[in-house]
Amino acid sequence: MARWGEGDPRWIVEERPDATNVNNWHWTEKNACGWSKDKLKELLVGLKLESEVADVTLTEMEKIDGEAVANNRKGKLIFFYEWDMSLIWHGRLKGGTGEHEGKIKIPNLSEENDVSEIEVSVTLKESNEEGEIIKQYLHHQGSEKIRERLGLYISSLKEEFSKGMILPKKDEILNDNKEAQQISNLSKGFSNKMHMNQVNNKAQTTNNINKRKIDTTTLELSQTFQCRGEDFYNAMTKPEMVSAFTNGPAVIDSKVGGRFELFGGNIIGEFTELVQDKKITQRWRLKGWPEGHYSTVSIVIDQQEDHTLVKMSQSDIPKSDMEGTKENWSRYYWDAIKRTFGWGYFM
After folding, report:
1. Which pLDDT does position 24 carry in this prediction?
2. How far apart are CA 122 and CA 106, in angstroms?
3. Alpha helices in the chain (DSSP H)
4. pLDDT at position 28, please?
5. What is the pLDDT of residue 137?
6. Cα 214 versus chain centre, distance
7. How far is residue 295 CA from its own chain's centroid?
8. 192 pLDDT band (50/70/90 cuts)?
9. Which PANTHER family does this one have (predicted)?
10. N- or C-end of the chain: fewer Cβ atoms within 10 A?
11. Sheet of strand 216-225: strand arrangement
């Protein structure tokens, strides 16, 4: 029998104040069907599609069949949704003589399809010359606007049903007043070692920062994760997932030139290259670094047969911050990602 405190951490009930789902090990599920139906109606019914060609309004949700659930398994969030919808549209051609009606069908809104791949088909109740022009408009420009709304549903689903799915341990239960302090402490922790060196050399840095070039070095790390390459890419580029492993608000605009801000503003930068599921490159800086000084972070994601190998290279790190940077990548990125999403274990 294991000694007190030496048992399998998955089964140490005292680590959860409510004695449930210790370390998020067990499968938990939230039903998102009712919420999803309301959200899809909110986003689509009443949507006005206006252009120089025609003015069209989606007036009614004729059919909405399907389901949506959010799951947590070993700290990994899994979203499942599958919807088959039909909407009624009414529209008028600019300069036209009358109003026309038809249907828009969306048969395959699911997690298996990218938003750009979602089928949006358009039918016309009574075929005529004006109606066919409106139909073609909806098939091309109109369908893109509809897909944008479907994308908003997906992001809202993940944001709403991420809340409370990853349960905190006993020592992570904080009241609202302490939450801000936790984020502050986490931010300080990320840069603590770096700041120690900066304080010791403050006078020298102040005197010499404008007289000489900053002495820099390069850090290279590799780490294995038990997930798909796509999963890891999302963990670094999806706001809700970044917020989850950093334990605080995160600004993530995942496009080339888009900015990011983590750990209460202690880490900031912008994305300079994004290769879907393969590579992420960033201009990256720590708040305490000399003003205007950025490093370059390159993350290569290599999915293997049963795991994903991540190789990170960071150039232009001030030499005095090298050890602190290395330690904090391990602690606040790699370990935090594995702990939050359960990717340190074979699933």
Report:
1. 43
2. 9
3. 33-44, 129-137, 143-162, 176-200, 202-208, 229-237, 239-246, 322-329, 335-341
4. 65
5. 92
6. 34
7. 23
8. low
9. HEAT SHOCK PROTEIN 90 HSP90 CO-CHAPERONE AHA-1, LD43819P
10. N
11. 216-225, 308-318, 295-303, 279-286, 267-275, 259-262, 251-252
By three-state DSSP, how is residue 9 classified? Answer: helix
Least confident of 29-33, 72-76, 259-263: 72-76
Give CA–CA dist 199/114, Å, rounded: 49
For residue 26, the tally of other CB atoms under 10 A from its CB is: 12
Any residues with CB less than 8 A from the CB of 206 and at least 6 apart, and which? none
Residue 308 three-state SS: strand
- Average pLDDT value for the chain: 80
CA dihedral 126, 132, 134, 137 (to 10 degrees): 140
The residues, any chain, with a CB within 8 Å of residue 189's CB and separated by 6 or more, are 328, 331, 332
Go through 182-205 and write b for each residue having 16 or more CB atoms within 10 A of its CB, e for each that does not: ebeebbeebbebbbebbeeeeeeb
Can you list the domains of the chain with their CATH numbers? 28-162 (3.15.10.20), 178-341 (3.30.530.20)
Highest mean pLDDT out of 105-119, 214-228, 333-347: 214-228
HSE, CB side, 13 Å, CA atoms: give it for residue 80: 8
d(CA 344, CA 292): 36
The tens digit of pLDDT for each residue in 130-147 reads 999 999 999 988 999 999
pLDDT in tens, 309-343: 999 999 999 998 899 899 999 999 999 898 888 88
What is the biggest distance separating any 2 CA atoms in the chain, rounded to whole angstroms?
85
Residue 186: what pLDDT? 53
